[in-house]
Amino acid sequence: MKLSLLDSVIDQWSALPPVETADLSGKTVLVVGANVGIGLEASKHFARMRPARLILACRSEAKGKAALTEIEQETDHSGCELWILDLANFASVTAFADKFEKEGGDLHILVMNAAIALPGGVYQPTTDGWETMLQVNCLATSLLSLLLIPQLVAAGRKSSTPSRMVIVSSDVHYWVTPTKEVRTSSKPLEILGSKEWCIPEHMRFRYSESKLLNLFFARALTDRLQSITPLSAVAVTPGFCYSQLRRVWYEQPTFSFAKIRLAIQERFLAWTAEQGSRQLVFAAVGGRDNEEKMKGGFVKHGRLVEVADFVLSDEGRKMQDNVWNETIDILNSVSDKIAPIVQDYLVVPD
């Protein structure tokens, strides 16, 4: 599928379906990146469905507490909890997963929403040595998702419906094709994460690349989950929304045409954060009448749509497998729990 600029504008001006609802009583929902924007609004929708536990995973304790208060006041739901998580620090991710293993119990819905978008040309490494967007949006997102598979599968086995892992991707994946050097490499992440590669010419595509990698992860994981495993990994685009995702752009002290262009685009095209959050909610609780198609699917406008032609191509599938294999190799060095999870819950795809 191709998505032109005109198609994108028409999409943004199209009416959205109402938020999907479900009975979440007795269930546990975890939303990563829940203190602002679409993550906060999605959490409010989940709270109205009365889950037994709604866990908000946030980097900032102060902002997390403010979100917790706002959700409880607007929804009158008292089953909310704040857990601290910093995706820019692998140690924080593994500590979070260890805590969930001890205190979280079964997990029915995981929404991996946290992400960062830095202005083009900005190279910022994390304390772990990875470029920040690559680690936060991709590697740490994949790490936590994999570490929580045992809790997701356990919940699915006890429930009448498979658990859901929601990976927030984006429409921007339609407009990015990695360079030949990256897409043909057996270690594309090593190239993308190297300081030598992270020059302005390449970094202006980094956010879009990270959303493509998110989609690769959901599809590659689906390929490796046995059909009988009660877990569905679903990718979703929230559309172009007002959110805190682009706050770093506006915080730049210097004048730039990019900030003006972004402000104009938001004024005429952007949905509200609540409207965007409906897509996350549908990916988490919708489409239960056709669960098999939801597995590895891409949700947009409250329905499944076809992904970009590159993703479906032979070259795209090969890059997807290379990214998966390299991701597992990298994460094995981060946590000794990754290899057993891969061995116990996943299979070699056909």
UniProtKB/TrEMBL annotation:
- Mind listing the GO molecular function terms for this protein? oxidoreductase activity
Task: Could you list this entry's UniProt keywords, alphabetically sorted.
Answer: Oxidoreductase
The record, for InterPro entries, names: NAD(P)-bd_dom_sf, SDR_fam
- Name the Pfam families for this protein: adh_short (PF00106)
The name this protein carries in UniProt is: Short-chain dehydrogenase
Which species does the entry assign this protein to? Suillus placidus
Its ancestry begins with:
Eukaryota, Fungi, Dikarya, Basidiomycota, Agaricomycotina
